[in-house]
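Supplementary Note 3. Input sequence used for the single-chain structure prediction.
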Amino acid sequence: MSVLLNTSDHEQGLIRSLRIQPLLVVLRPESTDLEASFPGTRLSRQLDQLVEAGVQHVEIAWIEHPRWPDLVMAAMSRHPRVSLGAASITQQLALKQVAELGFSYAMSPLLDRGLQQKAKQLDFLLVPGVMTPSEIRQACDLDCRLVKLFPASVLGRGFYRQIAAPMGNLPFMIAAGGLRAGDLYSWLGAGYDAIALGRTVFENDGFDPCLSAWIGA
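The predicted structure, written as discrete structure tokens, is reproduced below.
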């Protein structure tokens, strides 16, 4: 008998998984990725490299393009064991599409009450982006136990400790935006629960050795 999971279950599942490996990598499709057969695309090569290195959580940025669904379905089929999420969700059209495609979760760069309410209606996990203590509190009021601090590089590594004492219990917090693999140890040590990395993971299409070292440590 199959068990239907609700949004809270998915949220707790993602938190548990990120406690084991507190890393997410965001891939952004280019126009060439949307024009070719998936196995021959840059995005496919990068996803293969991440999976081979042992990365467990990968996000593919949403793009309003008729071939984007085919791209992500091919990625899911190629690597069914990866926790695959969608990134850059800022509108209900995108949210509805990623929920229908079967993503594990999605992330937004902003906190939008309407988007969160729609996600709950769809029984789908949408992680909001927050930047201020007020936005963190608003996210908690919307029952979000998982948030993304964005852009983290602008706020700085010490931001977490500055707000932790006056705010009390904080949600599970992912630092994202402008970070590199070399930042993993120091930012996790500063209190953040997980780190999201983007294009800096690949230097001239080569894998950042700092990330390989961190995963293998």
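The domain at 7-216 is CATH 3.20.20.70 (TIM Barrel). The mean pLDDT is 93.
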